[in-house]
Amino acid sequence: MCVLVLTFVMTFSTRPSTYRISLAPTGRARCRKCKQAIRKGGVRLEIGAFVRPGRYTLLMRCASCIDPAMAKAILNVYTSASRVPAEPSVDPASAARVRDRITTCSKRVVGAHSHVTQSVTLSVTLVV
Ligand SMILES: [Zn+2]
């Protein structure tokens, strides 16, 4: 018997995340940044984060935790904060406040660059 271990390294471009302004349907979700529960009915930002091709995970962030790095990432996708989608249940004034925050934050300087590619190593063990 011999055991072959084959390792493949796949490199692919990271898909941009998607963003949406929504209202918390329950008080259970926690903000990814400050770890505080987002109160029921509170305005939040949903982040559809790319994991690997075909796989996204939904993350939440409270509106007050939008920081410059995030604002820039949002504008990379939507160009202008006014194009960030909002759920119909979010009142226009709240959505406008979140978009204003995105615009304001994006004007601050960000040091770190996000990675545009990532590698996944797949190991396959064949028993012959
Ligand atoms: Zn927060």
* Beta fraction: 35-45%
Reading side by side through the largest sheet, how are the strands ordered? Answer: 2-3-4
Low-confidence stretches: none
Going by helix content, strand content and strand pairing, the class is: alpha+beta
The kinds of small molecule bound in this structure are: zinc ion
Number of helices: 2
Radius of gyration: 19 Å
CATH topology: first zn-finger domain of poly(adp-ribose) polymerase-1
Number of domains: 1
CATH class category label: Alpha Beta
Cα end-to-end separation: 6 Å
Q: Could you give a short account of the major beta sheet?
A: 3 strands, antiparallel
| Form type | elongated
Q: What is the CATH superfamily label?
A: Zinc finger, PARP-type
- Name the helix and strand elements from N-terminus to C-terminus, one letter apiece: EEEEHHE
Q: Name the helicity range.
A: 10-25%
Number of strands: 5
Overall pLDDT metric: 85
